Amino acid sequence: MTSTAKSSWSRTRHTGAAAVALTAAVALLAGCSSDGTSDDPLAGEKADAGTVVVGSNNFAESTLLADIYGEALKAKGLKVTYKHNIGSRETTYGLMKNGSVTVLPEYNGSLLAYLDSGAEQKSAEAVNEAVRAKLDEKLTLLDSSPAEDKDSVSVNAETAEKYKLTSSSTLADLKEIAPDLVIGGSPEFQTRQQGLKGLKSVYGLEFKSFKALDAGGPLTQAALADNTVQAADIFTTDPTIVKEKFVVLKDPENLFGFANVTPLVHKDGLPQKGVDALNEVSAKLDTKTLLDLDAQVQLEKKDPLDVAKEWLKSAGLL
Fold first, then answer.
1. Start-end ranges of CATH 3.40.190.10 in the chain?
2. With contact defined as beta carbons under 8 Å apart, do 61 and 294 qualify?
3. Cβ distance 244 to 224 under 8 Å?
4. What residue range is the signal peptide (predicted)?
């Protein structure tokens, strides 16, 4: 199965909300960096020699991942500073190019969609090769982790119990029961290939009906939780999955493309021991782990830095 990067990626949280991104960009232009200094990172000022600047986009998971990267680098003796909640990819990519930010947690398929909206996504490895070919020459991707934050079809606990669906079940397992289920998602989900069209053409799924809600947000979460819909488009690391005991169905044909958590780095700013440290993080971070860490931050309200350190310790990386 070949996916094209142009459909659902434009609406995921990986791009950041437009209003928040605009606010962040205005703050940056006004000289208000996340560490409280008056430096303007958009002016092209590079990080101090020997200092690795780890950035994050303006959503909770990105901040958590940045803390994981930064603390892993510190454990190797590197000097690290943070620039959290920068904003949209348009802003962060510029900061990466000019050296204001050294390391940024990215999502390989989403980054490819930004760099080449028409690119095909045949495998995670192929996506990374395509990204590297399109990146500014000063930048590169390190190893991708198995952890993915992407669209999925998830069912609620009641539906999972009724039809004996588990975390090992796939979208193909819905073929016989889809006519009994109402599915929910953003209005665009009804007409996109990475939506109802693809679910029908790839997996042969035809649902009882579709309910227009939002893009994996509170309306969709609530409708799935109260059984207004029995299946819905939910992001794979959404903490609501843990809270409401939703079951995420596997997508073996990769209809929803790839969104592997992957470090984007400025080549000149990260020594080899830093590269090795981040690759070690990627090797140990999977989707189930990231979902659990997100739940700790977003549901249990733990400090993301504390969560990052605790996981690194448990993984033998700190």
1. 3-148+258-314
2. yes
3. yes
4. 1-29
